[in-house]
Amino acid sequence: MTKIGLALCDCFGQFAEVIDLDSIEQSMRDSGKFSVILRKDDFCMTSGLESIKQMITENNLEKIVIAACSPKAYETVFRKVIEELGMNKYSSLVMVNLENHVVAVHKEMPKEATKKAKALILAAVAKIEKAESIEKIKIPIQPTTLIIGGGIAGETAAQELTDLGFDVTLVERRPSIGGRMLQLGTVYPTDDCSLCVRSSGYVGFDVGGPRRCFYRGGLGTLDKLEILTNTEVKDVKGQIGNFKVSLEKKPRYVNERCINCHKCAEVCPVEVENSFDFNLTKRKAIYRPFPQSIPPYYVIDPNICLFEKCAKCVEICPTNAINLNEKSEKMEKALGIVIMATGFEEYDASRLNYGYGMFPDVVTQLQLARMLDPTGPSYGEPYRPSNQDMPQKIVMIQCAGSRDETHMPYCSNVCCMIALKHSIMIKEKHPEIDITICYMDIRSVGKNYEEYYRKARELGVVFLRGKPSYVVDDQRTEKILVEVENTLTGEFNILETDLVALSMAMVPSKGSAELAKMLGIELDEYGFIQPLDPKIRPVETNVAGVFATGCTITPMDIPTTMAYSGTASIRAAKLMQSREMEKDKVTAWVNQDICSTCRICEQVCPFSAIEMGVKEDGKLGPAEVLDAKCYACGLCVSACPSAAISFKFYSEEQLKAEISSLLHNGGTDKKIIAFLCDECAYGTADEAGFMGLQYDPSVYIVRVPCISRVDPQLVLSTLQEGADGVLVIGCLKDRCHFLKGSEVGDLRVNLLRLLLNQMGINEERVKMYFVDCAEVNLFTRAVEEMTQTLETIGKLQMQ
Amino acid sequence: MVTRSKHIKINHEFIRELTKLPECENLKNCYQCGACSSYCPSFKYSKVYNPRKIVQDVLVGLKDEILENTNLWFCGVCHACTEQCPQGVELSEILSHIRNLASKIGNIPTHLVSEVKNLLETGQVVPPSSAINRRREKFGLPELPDAPVDEIRTLVKSTGFEDMIRRKIELEKAKEREIMEEAKARMKKMEEKKTEDA
Amino acid sequence: MTEYALFLGCMVPNRLPHLEFSFRKILNHLDSNDLVHDISGFGCCPEPIGFPGMDNITFMTLAARNLTVAEEQKLDILTLCTGCFESLKTASVKLKHEPKLLEKVNKHLSKVGREYNGTVEVKHIAQFFYDDIGFEKLKKNVVKHLDNIKVAAHYGCHLLRPSEILAFDDPHNPTKLDELIEATGAKSVMYLRRDYCCGAGTKSLDGNVAAEMVMEKLRQIARVGADCMSVVCPFCFLQFDLGQEMASRAFKDSYDVPYQIPVLYYTQLLGLSFGIDPKEFDFKRHRIKVKPLLEKIDAVAVPAV
Predict the structure, then answer these.
(1) Global ipTM
(2) Chain C within 8 Å of A475 (Cβ-Cβ)?
(3) Which of A137, A274, A325, A392 sits at a 20 to 30 Å CA gap from A257?
(4) Are residues B100 and B126 in the same domain?
C-alpha cells in the first residue's frame, strides 16, 4: 500500500472556529488511508515546512495530502519542498483548500462544513492514489534566431541578440534593410534624421553614448549577424529550438564589386515609379534604393529590366559587377527562435472619398515625409506634385481610414504625432504656409509629445475639429477643396488648399498573413499578430519560440518599437542561453495505436502544437504532440473522438476517482459538482472565501486546467455517479488563458444539453458560467442559481 | 420656444428612451466627428439642418429643443449620412424617429400637410389632371385605375394618423385666427388713433 | 421568369407620361410584355422623404397595403420611380424581418380586409433590366451604337441608400447603371459627386438648396464633357430637366451657366439605341433641348451589322 501522510492545518485556531478538527482527524484515522497524520498551525512558515519534511522522511512517505489553504498561494512552496526530498511534485502532493472551500464559506453550518472537509480530504486521497509521476523533458534549443523584417524593429532585435552573443539571420524581402523608418526621413520625438541607430560599441566607437552616426552600416559589420536582403521566407517547419526554414534569395544581378558610380543608371533606358519615394519620383530599372542602403550596392528590378535585349549597364560597368544571368538561390536553415518584425504599410488611400489617385495634390503623410526629408526628392521642401510649386496652403486629414468601422476600426496611434511633426517642420521653415489639421481627437500621449501639440499651435497651425467627407477640386483655380464641418462652431467649411496630406491608417504588411499561416500563429481580425496576452506577454505569440515586435503587432511609434524589440530579444535570449528548454511532461500524449488520424486535434489546438505524422509509405500517420509548443490545456484530450489523447496530470482516472469519492463521501443530501478552471474560475472561488461570502455546502469543487478539458462524457458520468447538478465555470470567452478553451467549452456544454434532453434529463442540471477573476459574486450566484434549480426539479433519479 | 435655464443639465432620459428602439440603439456610438454633416448637402446649402448637431442634442438630452426644431424637415432623406458614418450610426433612421415624435406635437411642415390632404382626397401625392390624361391618351397609355381612396382613409384613421393631421390643421387654423385677430386689433387701434388725431 | 405588377406611382403617370411611354415601348420592343402586368388597386407608395417622418406606422401600413395588392395576384412589384422603390422595398424588407412590426401593420390592414404575408419582392426597373432582361437581350436589340455619346449616370439616392436595405449596388462606387448605359454602346463617364443627391427632396422646403445641389452636380457633369445624363427616377428627371433651367437662371451670374445638358430617362436612351424614332418619345416635352444630342447621334452612329 502506498504510504500517504496527511498534514492537517489548524491555522492558529481559525479553522476550529468553524470545523471540528478532532472529528476530522479521527475520521481520517478511521479511514485507514493515512500512515501518519500531522496537525500543526504553521505549514506555510519555515518551521511548518521543516515539520513536513520531517514527517515525510521519518515515515518514509510516498505521497502527502496537505489540507490547508489555497493551492494557488502555497502549492509551489510545498512542491519545492517535496522536490528537494526527491519526490515527484505532481504525483506526490495534493492540497485540500480547507480555508476557501470550507471554513470561510460555510461559517454558519459547522456540522455540514466538517462533513464536507472530510469528503474533500478523502477525494484528495482518491486523486493522489491515481496520480502518476511526471518527469521533466528537455528540448534542445539552437542559439540562433531568424528575424523576419529588416526595419527598425528587426534591426534592433538583431543588434540586441548579437550583442548578447547569439547568431542572428535577418531576412528582408526588399533590396535593402532600413524599413519605413528610413523613408520617414526625420522622426519624432527627436526630430533628427532616421539613419542613426543605437550605439552598442561595435564599430570602433567603444565609448557608447546616446547614439552614433554611422548609418545602418554598423549592422553590416556585426560578425554574428547575417543579413539576407532580397530574400523571402518560403516555408517554416518544426518547433521551438529547431525551426526548419526555407528561404529564397532573389537575384540582385549586381555583386559586391559595385562601387556606386551610378553609370549604369545613367544608361538604363527603363524608368518606373520609385517605391522608396512612394511613387513621387521615378527610378531606373537598375538603381540603388537610397544612398545609405545596406548592402551598399545597386540592384536590378527584374519586373521591368530588358535584360539581354538591352544590357547597356553590363557594357558600361567599370568593375564588371553586373551579371544578368544570376539565378535565385534556395536556402535551408535550422534556427532556434523566430522573431516576426514585418512592419506595416499604409491603408489604400484610394478607398476613401478623399480624391487620392484622382488629384495628384492629394498625398499621404508618408509621401509628405519623403518631401520633407532633407535628402528626399525636393531636399526637404513641400511641393504640389501636379506642378512642383510650393503650396501656400496645406490641409491634413487625420484618421483617414482609422477609427472607422467601414475601414479600420482601430486608432493607428502615430498619425497625430506625424501630422504634428510635419506641420511643425513646415511652419518653422515657411511660416507663410497656412496649415489646417482636420482632426477628431489629438492623441499626443508619450514623453514630450504634448509639447508638439503646443508647439504646433504656437507656430499657428489651425486645428479644425471635424472629419471631412469629400475632397474635390476647383477646376478654375486648380485648388483642392476640402469640405468639412467645424464641429466646434457648427459651421460648414470649404477649405481651399494646394496640398492635402492624408494621415492614413496603418495596416499589416502584405505577406504577413502567409507568414503567420506558415508559423501557425494567430492573427487578430485586422491581420496584426495577436499576442499571447496583450498585457503581460505582449511580444509572445501562441506558438512557443515565435516572438513578434513592432508594427506587426499593432501600430506603434519608434520608442515603443525599441522597447518591444528589447523585450522580444530578452525573451528569446532567455530560451537560448541554456541551449535547452526544461519542461514538465504535463503535456498531452497520443496513443498512436488508437489514433484514427481524423485531424480534429490538429485543428482545435490553439497553439499549433499538434502535427500529423507521416508513415513510411507517405500516408498520414497518427497525430503527434510537439511538447515544446503544448501548454497542457486539455482541449485536444476532450476533443479526441477515439479517446486516443490523454494527460498524465488531471488524467481521466484521477478526475473520475476524485468525483466518485466526493459523491460517495459528501455529506449533503443534494450534491453539485463544480468544475472550475484553474485560472479565473478557481480564483473566483478563492476570492469568495477571502471575502467571506457564504454559499450552500452541497457544492464540491473539482479543479481542471481549463474548462475545455471537461467533455460531455465526463459530465454524464458525473451525473450517473450521483451528482444532482453540474456547474462548469471558466474564464471569459475572449480572455481564456488558453485562448480558445472557454469558447470550445461552451460549444461542448451546448452539445451536452441536447444529449441530456434526449436522455430525458433536465438540461437545467448543467449550468455554465464565464467569469473574470475579479467577479467575486459570480461564483456564489452560480451556486445559488443551481441550488434553486435543484429545489424546483429535485434530486436526479437515474434509470 | 422653451426658455433655457441658465445651466443646462444633461438629461440622460431622452437617450435612454430613444435607444430602446433597435434602429436608434447605435446612436450611442456617435463620437461627433462630423462625417455626416461634412457630407450633408442640405447642411452645406441650407446651413440650418445639421445631422451631427441633432445627434449631439439627443446625446445631451435636449428633448424639447429637438422636437420643436422645424429645421428637422430640411433633410432631403438622401441617406448619405448613414452611409458616411464611421461608427455605423443609422442617422436617417434616427432622424425619422425623431420626426415622428416631433409630428406628435404638431411640428409638421405645411407642405407635408397639403401632401396628406392630397393623399386623403385622391389617394395620391401627385394627383391626376385632365390635361395629362389627354396626353396619356395620345400616347396610347392605358387608362389609370381609380386610387383606393376609401381604403387609405380607413387605414390612416386606424393608425391615428388622421387625428394627428387634423389636430395639426386645427392648430394652424387657430394660429391663423390669432394672427387675424391681432391684425384686426391693430387696425382698430390705428383707426381710433386716426379719429383721435382728426 | 418572375412576373411583376407595374407600380406606376404618382409622378410618372400624372406628370411625366412620356417616361411611362418609353418604358412600355421598350418592353414591347423586347417582346417582354408578359413579364409585366397592369393591375388595379395600388395607392400612394407613400413617398419616402416626408411621410415616414410624420408617422412610421402609417407609412408602413400604406406601403404594406400596396404589397398585399401584388401578393393577391402572386406577383412581385416593379417600380419606375426610385422613391416608390425605396418605400416599398423598405417595407417589404422590414416586414420580413420584424415580426412584431408585421403584426402591428396587419392589425391595421385587417380593417380593410387585408393581410400581408411577407412574400412580395420589390424591384426597380434598373434591376429589372440588369437581372431579368439581361445584357445579352439588350445588346441584341441595339441597332444604333451610341459610340460617340458620353453619358453621365445619375443613380439617385433612393436606388442606392440605405444600402443595407435596398442592396442594389455598392453605395460608394456603384457600377450597375453604368453597365446598363454602356450596353447601348455609349460611354458612361465618371465624374465627381456621383453619389450626390439631385436635391429634389429639399425642393418643397427651400428651392435655393435644391438649386444649389443640382448646380453642384451639373458643374461636375459638364466638366467631364457629358453629352447627356441618364436617370432612373422621375423626381431626379424633373430636378435635372426643369430644375436645370431654373437653377441656371437663378445662378446666371456665377458658374458657366446656363448648362444645356439633356436628361434622358434610361428607357429613352435605350430606345434611341434600339432605333426607335425619337419623335415617338415626345422629346419636345423636355425643358433642356434633346435635339443637339439627337443630331450628334444621327451624325455618326452607323447601323449595327
Answers:
(1) 0.91
(2) yes
(3) A274
(4) no
